[in-house]
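User: Hey, quick favor. My workstation is busy. Could you predict this chain's structure for me?
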Amino acid sequence: MKIIVDAMGGDNAPQAPVMGAIQAVKEYGVNIILVGKSEEILKVLADNGISDLPAGVEVAYASEVVEMCDDPATAFRRKKDSSLTVGLNLLKSGAGDAFVSAGSTGALLSAATLVAKRIKGIRRAALAPVVPTGNGGAVLIDCGANAECPPEYLLQFAFMGSYYAEKVMGRPNPKVGLLNIGAEPSKGTALQTTVYPMLEAAGEAGRINFVGNVEAREAVEGAVDVIVSDGYSGNIFLKTMEGTGLYLAREIKRMFKKNLITKLAALLVSGGLRDFKRTLDSGEVGGTALLGISKPVIKAHGSSDARAIQNAIAKTREFIDSGMIQSITDNIDLMRLDAPAATAEKE
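Assistant: No problem, here it is.
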């Protein structure tokens, strides 16, 4: 298995992508192509006491970098020799099995769509992070790639999220819920009330396990395995969860530092606190799959350190092995508004 890593993408590049990739080679036995400025990549290795490229690691030269301030829709076109563009072209040509980047989300989405291409029949690719919930995590799709969505986008998101929960997360017959302001089918904007019967019909046909609308509170408590949303609402949901998690972690820390007794109490529950903190840590999650692209593309958090990049590569390996893309391809006819009246079961 060979994974292409954008060595110049992210706030901590090239240090984090390079060292995260080196550790992934040691831990997982994968092969890595580091894409970026060779001299900077080699300097990172030298600074960390590595004089030669380790076995399983190669470098593909790219002279340019897509910066966070660049226009995401056009940056990869203007910078044809950027690590992002070169890396995705390597993926397209078959030089590697997947591409990982902590660079600009918008640029990655645009470039992946136009270089690696969407799966035929998929209207839009979607970002699908696994968010911490009471049932061990749920797929949130979409979380920001598509701010405005017609009903067919959400219909396809539901299928893709369901396949991801089943094949990557190991959830048999995953529960799919439509993020909304109430449980009743009549709740929500025109988008939610229009897509609800489509999802209901897919559920009745046995193609997905649609359980109806789900409010944000119930979603966090673990009512569903897949949370379907337009990118605008999904991004607000995700950022609210992140902010709430940071607030809770800060307040718990402050509470335990109050006096000697509370500090002693903190020692008694330190293991549980570490586990709780880990569920809120984007570095532990590693990366977010860009679902709907014809080849595996994983977006790591922009602030990823080496550990987060290593975890993103681990997530990428799971994604490759899952057969996720083939599942979408095989079932694309069931994901259209004019899907056959079906008898066919969800694969």
